[in-house]
Write a structure and sequence with these properties.
Layout lengths: L1 H8 L2 H15 L2 H28 L4 H24 L4 H35 L1
Length: about 120
């Protein structure tokens, strides 16, 4: 459990670890980056949820994150249905999961900077 918590606090470590393992195994940078993104997204979800909770002093962070992911799944599924007439669940989930990586990475940086700023302002 402490390994998972450490990886959630520092989500760039799982990215680096998975990237190097996959690159050493497959010798393909594109595959290594995609797998690293997929694994790191899980850690980012927990990390951003915790940072949100700490920043805004609430317990709604994880629920809010899941709500956004479910809304994104619905929107992507609806777009697939309109464009192709059917929904490919695997592609839909993969697209949302990778969008979640980008948004959670942005949220991680934003909440970390905001939290540090808020901490330093309290110390003064």
């Amino acid at each position: 459990m402490s390994f998972f918590i450490t990886m959630s606090i520092l989500p760039f470590f799982p990215f680096i670890i998975v990237y190097w393992v996959m690159y050493a195994w497959k010798k393909d940078k594109r595959v290594a980056v995609r797998k690293a993104m997929d694994v790191t997204t899980l850690f980012l979800i927990f990390s951003v949820s915790a940072l949100f909770n700490l920043t805004f002093e609430t317990n709604f962070g994880f629920s809010l994150t899941l709500i956004f992911i479910l809304i994104a799944l619905g929107l992507v599924g609806g777009a697939q249905n309109r464009l192709k007439g059917k929904v490919n669940g695997g592609r839909m989930f993969r697209a949302v999961w990778r969008m979640a990586f980008v948004m959670m990475s942005f949220g991680y940086v934003l909440f970390t900077i905001f939290g540090l700023f808020r901490y330093f302002m309290k110390q003064m």
